[in-house]
Design brief:
This protein is 48% helix and 21% strand. It is α+β, with helices and mostly antiparallel strands. The protein binds L-tyrosinamide.
């Protein structure tokens, strides 16, 4: 058998193909104005007015709403930016993240 045959044998795959994904979750509170929640969702998560309104209302009515799913680094960065926007205005607006099963 020539060496070439051995070299072309497919490599074993030991890593999982996809990275773990994280849900970003918006929590309701009694103080942040609705318009401001919508503004943050549009700015950080690039939602349309309609999408942002729907997510804001779901969190308002049910206590929490999944905003979107990202890799860990992207989810962390988006949570930080969104929480910072609320904090900068003195609102307790909270985005958190949870690993997907
Ligand atoms: N509950 C807030 C109010 O009535 C609005 C709100 C909605 C705040 C969703 C946070 O994630 C939230 N002003």
């Amino acid at each position: 058998m020539p060496d070439l045959v051995t070299k072309l044998r497919p490599k074993e795959r030991t890593r999982t193909a996809r990275p773990p994904m994280y849900k970003v979750i918006l929590l309701n509170d009694d103080f942040t104005p609705r318009f401001f929640v919508v503004r943050v969702l549009k700015a950080v998560f690039r939602m349309s007015e309609g999408e942002a309104l729907g997510v804001m209302l779901t969190a308002h009515q049910r206590g929490a709403c999944v905003v979107a799913v990202f890799t860990r680094e992207v989810a962390e960065e988006k949570c930080r930016r969104a929480n910072d926007m609320g904090a900068a205005e003195g609102f307790p607006l909270t985005f958190t993240m949870e690993k997907e099963d």
